[in-house]
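Input record, target 12 of the design panel.
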């Protein structure tokens, strides 16, 4: 490929949305992916007739209305589409003190389910979740593009002044502060913590209100929709679209260096020594990998240092990819579950267990008569370092059985019905996803002012942009798609496209 306009390092959803958006605008785009397939944390792998999602299974952004359905919009932009399956319940919570609750797709039904446990807080519950809708309605009334582009900001402000003022008001706020305005019951506040923790991996007082407004409302608006064929299909389709509009992708192309000249990013070097030059370089690797591995760690820019003082790497996960006989799951079992027995352990290692059973929505992902259960729980990489192979395998097995024992409470007979089990550790996440310490992404080190501290796409290195979950607005497929739209928008303006 000659005269490359934009080189994208990595084909996670953030990288692919950037690449497709730019290629659709006529830029010459090359994506370099270190692994064999695209998708990163939204990829898949196949074993013995099962197609497992690597990470994400609860997918927002595949709806049909409004402006926040960013995955649908990204696919549309390159003339590809993805069949989806409606998920009627976002999460079935199994929480301490017998709090057993389903988050129904229908907003009123969810409020009723929750209020049935907290009658005395019914008005507060409604006022809190209604306030989240205010954030969502602001976001959902405008095109979500680069907040680093002044002309766009002016245009949206004149078109939607009230929505913009609304968002400006919520930008520095966290969920905990808003929740405490309306709710006093400590157990209900713990529930709100869990509502945040299950995607932000921090409690409500550290979770930005903007992100919560999206998640707590969109689940009842565009809803949670599972892509037919597995989550890996989204990335596969984006690549199909990228190639349709003239973009290119290379696999097994691990970038080891971002090349700079007079301080400006001008190209990349691969592990095999090959060099590519481009007018703009986009890194879909995490900011830690970008500024400490791909650029000299001793030259880390001041604002990146500052960001690292405010944000740290979240833990990674221990993941169990399980194949199980279908009869283990009773009729009416929901796709996504959260299990926690002790509120004090919500954020502890092996505290909260996240479960997805995508075959309840798409049975073709497993052999007939079997289901997939993906269970994962936070773990730090430090606990998995320095082990011999034997010790590592033994530790994995012990941890897996601890999780299976706990899951037996919600899925009795799980152990007896096991057909397949593969265990991934933080080391697996680091190795296959190329993410430092296998981290899920950045989390605030302490209570910050909402989303104000999250960096956008431009970096201190001219010509170099970051995209993905360590840029605004953070983790999750729809969030990194937002980051991709914003990154492509900023670059398109910079290149005069
Ligand atoms: C266990 C788990 C469960 C999750 N569940 C959900 C969920 O239910 N819903 C949801 O919305 N989100 C979920 N997430 C989060 C979501 O998957 C991520 O936030 C999102 O996929 C991150 O996308 P990204 O584009 O930032 O980067 P990544 O997915 O990390 O992709 C980066 C890509 O860059 C490549 N790369 C990195 N370095 C290099 C290099 N040097 N050279 C070339 N290529 C490189 C990697 O191989 C990878 O393909 C989950 C994540 C995990 C781990």
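The sequence produced for target 12 reads:
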């Amino acid at each position: 490929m000659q005269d490359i306009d934009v080189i994208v390092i990595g084909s996670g959803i953030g990288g692919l949305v950037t690449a497709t958006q730019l290629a659709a605008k006529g830029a010459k785009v090359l994506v370099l992916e270190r692994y064999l397939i695209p998708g990163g944390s939204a990829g898949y792998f196949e074993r013995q007739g099962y197609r497992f999602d690597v990470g994400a299974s609860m997918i927002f952004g595949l709806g049909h209305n409004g402006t926040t359905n960013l995955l649908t919009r990204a696919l549309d932009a390159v003339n590809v589409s993805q069949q989806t399956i409606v998920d009627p319940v976002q999460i079935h919570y199994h929480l301490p003190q017998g709090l057993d609750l389903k988050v129904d797709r229908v907003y009123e039904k969810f409020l009723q389910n929750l209020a049935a446990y907290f009658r005395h807080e019914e008005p507060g519950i409604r006022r809190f979740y209604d306030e989240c809708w205010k954030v969502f309605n602001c976001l959902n009334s405008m095109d979500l593009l680069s907040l680093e582009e002044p002309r766009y900001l002016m245009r949206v402000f004149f078109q939607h002044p009230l929505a913009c003022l609304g968002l400006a008001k919520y930008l520095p706020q966290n969920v905990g502060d808003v929740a405490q305005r309306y709710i006093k019951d400590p157990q209900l506040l713990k529930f709100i913590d869990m509502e945040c923790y299950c995607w932000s991996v921090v409690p409500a007082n550290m979770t930005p209100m903007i992100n919560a407004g999206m998640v707590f409302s969109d689940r009842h608006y565009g809803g949670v929709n599972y892509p037919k064929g597995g989550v890996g299909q989204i990335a596969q389709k984006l690549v199909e679209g990228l190639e349709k509009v003239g973009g290119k992708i290379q696999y097994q192309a691990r970038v080891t260096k971002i090349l700079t000249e007079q301080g400006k990013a001008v190209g990349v070097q691969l592990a095999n020594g090959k060099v590519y030059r481009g007018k703009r370089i986009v890194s879909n690797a995490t900011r830690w990998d970008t500024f400490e591995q791909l650029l000299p760690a001793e030259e880390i820019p001041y604002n990146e240092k500052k960001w690292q003082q405010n944000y740290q790497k979240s833990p990674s996960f221990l993941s169990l990819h399980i194949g199980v006989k279908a009869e283990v799951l009773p009729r009416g079992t929901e796709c996504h579950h959260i299990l926690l027995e002790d509120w004090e352990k919500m954020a502890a290692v092996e505290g909260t267990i996240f479960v997805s059973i995508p075959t309840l929505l798409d049975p073709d992902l497993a052999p007939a008569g079997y289901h997939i259960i993906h269970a994962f729980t936070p773990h730090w990489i430090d606990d998995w370092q320095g082990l011999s192979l034997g010790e590592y395998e033994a530790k994995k097995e012990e941890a897996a059985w601890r999780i299976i024992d706990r899951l037996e409470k919600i899925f009795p007979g799980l152990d007896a019905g096991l057909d397949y089990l593969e265990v991934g550790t933080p080391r697996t996440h680091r190795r296959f996803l190329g993410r430092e310490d296998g981290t899920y992404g950045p989390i605030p080190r302490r209570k910050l002012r909402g989303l104000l501290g999250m960096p956008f796409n431009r970096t201190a290195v001219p010509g170099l942009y970051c995209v993905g979950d360590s840029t605004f607005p953070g983790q999750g497929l729809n969030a990194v798609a937002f980051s991709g739209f914003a990154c492509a928008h900023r670059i398109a303006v910079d290149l005069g496209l």
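The chain has a mean pLDDT of 96.
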